[in-house]
Amino acid sequence: MPAIKFANTVVEVESQVVANVTAFNRNISVSEENITGSEDVVVGQDVLQSEFASIAVEETATIEGVAIEDSGTGLDVGQSELRDAAETGATVTVTHTRSTGYGWSLSGFFTAYAETGSTAGVYRFSGTFRVNSKTEIVPGS
Amino acid sequence: MALNDRETRLAYLNDKVEQLAEEQEAELVSDYDEAEAEYRKVKPPIHIRFRGHDFVLPATMPFSFSMFFMRNCVKRKGDKLFMEVPDDKVAELIERMFGSAFLKLLEETDVELGFVVDHMIPDIMGKWGQQVASKAERGNV
């Protein structure tokens, strides 16, 4: 569990810290469109040179960590607060703050979520997170 | 434990991550203590009685004895291996095989070395899976 590498990386729901991230991997994919025209020919040949343009960027992140067990009341008691958010597709924020105070904040929702075990008061979780927006964190701002 | 504010929650999660990391590290340790205890049940030690004293020897050749034996007592003659104990290693061999209490007993009584060398050592070596000649030459076993 390489916690040091991802120190100060947490998951927040409605500005409340609900989990600590111990492994993090961002995946970016770009959708493209073929924009080859009849003029795009290979010099001296009778074949086209394909040309593409990026039209959309999407990002997901796979994360692992530990989530706090819900200490509230009702049906969700004993379940992790992060699971509550994942089950409802609620917007969550992954925040990483470096020792300098700078960092970033990713906002989105879970497209996949699993808990792999629990120990006193916390659950181990892993999931895929759809990133809808990214915000830089600047100290003092 | 009330987890009401951000700092308390962060500290709580960091503690849990550290605790889980320690547990994970402990799980990676291959503990052979129990396996060795089981092994000893299957292979009970050898009990010998000599001059009214009881001695307990391992059921199979101890690793330390094996290393001593291979380094000091095995000689190659042509394409054959012989057991030959140097004069200055006889006492150490007896101590490593029978224990220091046994060697002390030999030193304090009139037990003949020939009896130990001709009968006891070959017998124990046989029980440990190493057949050796029982007739000793001078300085040899």
Question: How does this model look, in words?
Answer:
The complex is a heterodimer of chains A (141) and B (141). With 141 residues, chain A is mainly beta. Chain A has one helix at residues 81-88, and strands at 9-13, 16-34, 52-68, 92-97, 103-119, 122-137. Chain A has one domain. Chain A is elongated. The two termini of chain A are 32 Å apart. The relative contact order of chain A is 0.22. Chain B has 141 residues and is an alpha+beta fold. Chain B has two domains: 1-30; 43-127, no CATH class. Chain B is built from six helices and four strands, in the order ααββαββααα. Chain B has helices at 6-27, 33-42, 63-72, 90-98, 100-108, 113-127; strands spanning 46-50, 53-57, 74-77, 80-83. Chain B is elongated. The N and C termini of chain B lie far apart (72 Å). At the A-B interface, strand 2 and strand 3 of A face helix 1 of B.
Give a quick precis of the structure:
Chain A has one helix at residues 81-88, and strands at 9-13, 16-34, 52-68, 92-97, 103-119, 122-137.
Overall form of chain A: elongated
Q: What is the total domain count of chain A?
A: 1
Q: How many helices of chain B does DSSP assign? A: 6
Please give the alpha-carbon distance between the first and last residues of chain B. Answer: 72 Å
- Give the helix level of chain A as a range of percent: under 10%
Q: Supply Rg of chain B.
A: 26 Å
What pattern of helices and strands is seen along the backbone of chain A? EEEHEEE
Number of domains of chain B: 2
**Secondary structural class of chain B:** alpha+beta
What is the residue-mean pLDDT of chain B, rounded to a whole number? 85
Give the percentage of residues in beta strands of chain A. Answer: over 45%
Largest beta-sheet details of chain B: 2 strands, antiparallel
Give, in order, the helices and strands of chain B: HHEEHEEHHH
Overall number of strands of chain B: 4
Widest sheet: strand ordering of chain B: 1-2
Cα-based radius of gyration of chain A, to the nearest Å: 21 Å
